[in-house]
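Quick entry, no commentary yet.
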Amino acid sequence: MEYQQNIWSYVKNEPYNFTILFLSKGENITEFLNAEYKKIGIVISISSLILVFMVFSSARNTERKESKAESKKVIAQQRSNNFASISDEIRRPINTLLGALVTLSETKLDFQQNLYAVTAKKSADYLLALVNEFQDYSKITRNEFELEKIEFDLRSTVHDIAELMSAEAYKKGLEVSCLVGADVPKRVLGDVTRLRQVLINLVSYAVHNTDNGEVSLCISAEDHSERMKYIYIDISDTGNIMDQETMSQQQTMLADIDIENEGSYSSEGLGLALSKQLVELMAGEVTMRQNSLGGNTFRICLPMPVVDVVAQNKEPKSLDGKRILIVGEIENNRNALSQEFAHWGMSGAAMEEFDRVVNVLRDAVISNKPFDVCLIDVSLSSSSDKAFEVVSQIRLEFDIDELALITLTAQGVPGDANRAQKLGIQAYLTKPVSRDSMHAAMLKIFNASLEGTPEIVTKHSLKEGLTQNVHRVLVAEQDVLFNKKLVKYFSRAGLLVDVANEGLKAEIAIRNNVYDAVFVSTTLPGINVFKFVKDFRKEESTLNNSLNLSSQSNIQTPIIGLINASDGAEIEKCKKNGMDNVLMRPFDESKVNAFITQYLP
C-alpha cells in the first residue's frame, strides 16, 4: 500500500521524472495495474451473478403467485358450486321440517309442548336463513346473482327494520331509534328485499355487540342528479369503542372472505361479508368508523333513483262514539290503550279480571250502553290460551254482529290466528302494535267497505295499506337528543317522522312535502324561523283565496315552535308570526301526546 501511494505521489509531483521511471520500472507498474484489473473483474462477475439470480427468483415468484391465484380461483369456483349444491340439499329437509312444525303448532298442544314447537321453529328459521346466506354468497361468487329493481317506500322500510329489531334489542335492555331526514325521498327504485337483508344483518350485529344504551338508524339523502339521490344509512351503537386490533378484524369481516381462512369466520362474519357484497352489487359501499363519544357506526351509501309520489285522496274514517272494553293484567298497558282509543273519539271501560268479562258485557247491554268491541290484552307471562278461553265464553252469549273481539298478545304462535278466526275473533294482533296498526284494525272491523276478504285481521295483513293513512310530521331541531326524544314519542304514537337539523333543509322539506304538523326550533341555525313562518302563512292564505275555500276549509299546516323555557316574550313572538303553539323544553311524553291529540287526531 505504501508502495502504491509513493507511485501516485511521484506521478503527481514529478511528471517528467515519472516518464524516466516508467521506462526503467515499467515491469513493476504493469504488474500493479493487472492486479487492480483482476479485482475489478471479480467484483463485476459477482455482481452479475447476483443480478441474474435476483431476476430469476423474481420471475419464479411471479409465476408461483399467478399459479396460486389461479388455483385459488379454481378452488373458489369449486367451493361455490359445492355451496350451491349443499344448500339445495339442506333446504329441502328444512322446509319439510318447517311445514311439519307449523302443522304441529295448529294441533292441540299444552303450554310446554307449544313452547318446544315454537323454539324448534325459530331454530329452523335461523338455519334456513343461514343456508340462504351461503346460497347468496355462492351466487355472487359465480356472478349469477341478480338484483330486483322495483318501486318501494324507503321510509317505511327503514321504520319496519327498526320495529322488527326492537324486540331483539328489548331482551338486552336496549332501545332502537330511527331518525329519517326530511330530504329522504319517500319512494325509490331498488331491491327492497336485499336492502332489508343488509339492514337486518348490520342492526343485528350492532345489537349483539352492545350491552347498554341504544342502537340507532339515521337515514339522510344527498342530491346526485335530477332523478337520483345518494342515500346514507348510519347504524350506530353505544358499545365500547373498538381498539385498533378489533377494528382491523371487523374490517376484515367486511372484506371478501379468504378461502384459506374461511374456517375462522362465524355466521356473523359471513353476514357482514355478504352485506358488503350486496351493497357493492347495488353500486354502493359500506364503511365503519369509531364514534367520538363511544360506540361504532356502519355507514351504507347507496345511489337510488327517485320515484314521484302520486297523491291519493281518501275519505276520512271515524271511530267516534264507539264503545270499547279493555281487558288486561297490566295497568300501564290498560291506561295507554285507553288514552290511545280516546284520541279517536272512543269511550268505554278497562278491567283486570278475566273471569268477570262476560258479566260486565252483559250488564252493559242491560243498562242500554252496550260495548261495540272488546279488546283482550294478554301479557308476556300468560299464554294466548287464556284469551281464547274468555273468547269461547263470550261467543256463547254474543254473536259477531253484536260484539267485535280483538286479542293483543306478546307471543305470536303459528296457528293461533287460524284458531282465533274459528273462535270468532275479528283481529289477532301481536305486540308491539303501532298506533296506526291499531287504528287500521279498528277501521277494518267497523267499516265493511275496508273488508277486502273475510280473513281475520293480523299485523301482517295491515302493513300494505297503512302508509297511505299515516300522519307525517317534521321535526326541525338542531339538538340530536331532543330529535331522538321527539321521534321516539311520535313513533310510539304511530306517526312517520322526518328530521332536519338546519334551516335550509327544513325550508326545502316544508316546501316540497305535505306535513300534517311541523315542530320547529325557534333557534334553528341557517334560517330566520319567524320570518319564514310568517312568509309561509302568507303563501297559504294566497292559496286559500285562489281556491275560494271557506274559512272552515282553509289549508293551514299546524306549526309548533320549540323553545327552551317559559318565556312570555318568546311565546308572544311565536304566535305573532303565525305559529299555532309552542312546546317548551324539557318536555315529556304526556305533553307531546297532548299536542298529538290536539293537532293530529
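second:
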Amino acid sequence: MKKFLFISLALVLTLMPYSLDARKHKYPNGDVYDGEWKNKAPNGMGIMMYVSGEIYSGAWVNGLREGSGAMSFQNGDQYSGDWKNDVFCGEGKMTYANKDVYEGSWDAGKQHGKGKMTYADGSSYEGAWEAGAFQGVGTRIYANGDVYEGSWIAGVQSGSGNMKYASGASYTGNWENGTPSGHGDMLYAGGNTYSGQWKQGQPSGPGELYDKEHDRYLTGNWDGEAVGGAGSVRFGGDVATALIIQGEWLSADKFQTSYSLQDKTFSGTVNPLTGDGVKGPFLESGKVEWPDDMVADGKWMPDVNLVDCNCSDLVDGRARYKMNGKAFDGEIKDGKECNGTLTISIQGKFNFSGEVKDGQYYGIYVGDFKGAPLPGFDVSAWDEVQGADIGRVEGEGALSGVYKKGVFSFRGLLKNGLPDGDSYMEFARPDSLSLNGTWKEGRLVEGKGIMNASVFTLKGAEEGNSVQADFENGDRCNFLYTDYQSILSEMMTKVQEQRAIREKLAAEMAASQEPVEPVATE
C-alpha cells in the first residue's frame, strides 16, 4: 500500500524543477492550486488549498485527484493513499479526527475490499468491507475484550461466526442481525454448554444443555433459560452406558417421566437436577411399583430416589404393601397410614387384623401388645399385656384386653393408658378381691365387687379420687385411691383398719362392764 505524508509531498514539490507546464492558479471561489498544469487543468503533481481550509497534495489527472495523494479535511480527518475520479480508490489510510484509523482498500470513497479499522477505544475490525460497512468475513475485537470471527452483512454479524467473550464464554454458530440465531453451540464461563437453536441471542427451540454442576445433559424445547416440551435427562457418562430418562418438562426442576431401575418402576414427576446416574433422581410425586405387588402413589419425602425408596417414604397418597410383617392397603397422610386395611404378624408374639381410620387403629389382636409395632398406646404400667387372650384396638389409644402386674389383673378398656368404660379387676391372693366397675378417663364412677365373700358397692365422687364403699353386712368406709391399680388394696386396707377399730372398741366396752351378783329370794 502506497503511503504519503503531507510534509514529504510538499518537500518533493518544492525541490521539483520548475517547468513551463507548472504554475500557480487561483479559482474564482478562492481555491488555490500550485503544481503541474496541463490542458488548462491540474495534471501531474500539485497542491490544492481549498478555501474551506482543506489541503490536497498529490497526483492529478485533468483536474481530478487521481493516483497517490494525501488530504487533510476541515473536520480533522487525514487521508493518504490512492485516488480515482476525485475520490478514495485503491489502497489508503484514513486517520479520523476522533483517532480512529482505517488502512486498506477503498472504492468510490468508501472502505471496500480488505481493510482494518482500529478504533480510538482500542477495539478493531479486520476483514472484508463493502460500501463502508463490514461485509463478508472479518474479525472484530471489542473494547471489552470480546472477539468475533466470522461473517458480516451490512455491518452486523450475519451467517456463520464465532464469538469469544471476555468472560470466558464462547459461541460458535449462526448469527442474524448481530445476535446468535439459528443453530449454534455456546460454552458458558462456568463450564455449562448449550447446543441447539437460538433466536435473538437466546436459546429458542430444540436444544441440549450440559449442566456441569450436576453433570447431566438436558434436552427439550428452550425459551431462554426455561425448558419445556418433550425431552430427556442423561446423567453424565457415556451415552451407551449412562442413565437416560425420557419425558416432558413441566418446569426447570420438574420432569414428568416413566423409567425403571433395579426391578422398580416409577411413573410421575422427578427433580432432574438431583440424585445420580445409579439410583436416579429424587422423586417428587407419582407411582412406584415393586415386583412383589407393592405399590405407592403420591407425594414423596425429599431426597428419596427410586432405588432406595420404600412405602414408608410416601408423604401423601395411597399405598399397598407387605413388608416387615405388616400388610397395608389404603391412604397415606403426613407419612402415616391414615385410612385403610391393616394386618400385622410377628411370629410367636403378636397378630393384628383390622383397619386404620383417620390415623387411628381399630381391630382384633392376639398376643402380647407390648411387642406390637402400633404407636400411640400407653401400656408402660403393665408387666404383661394380653398374654394369650384376644383383645381389641379401638382407636385414639383405646385398648381393650387383659393386663397383669404382679397379683393384680385388669380386663377392660384402657384409653391413653387409663381405664375407660366397663371393666373387671381382681387380686389373685387368698383374701381375694374383685370388682366390676365403670370408669371415665381413669376415675372410678361406680362398681360392685366381692371381698372375702362379702359383697360391696363403690361410688366415686364426681371429681377427684374419693370413693365410698358400702358392704352388705353394714360396713361402710370412705377412702382416697392413688391410681386404678391401687383402688382394691387401698379399700381393703381401709376396711381392715375400721374393723380393727370396731373390734377394739367392742373389747374395751366389754371389759369395762362389772359382773352382777345374783340376789337370793325367799
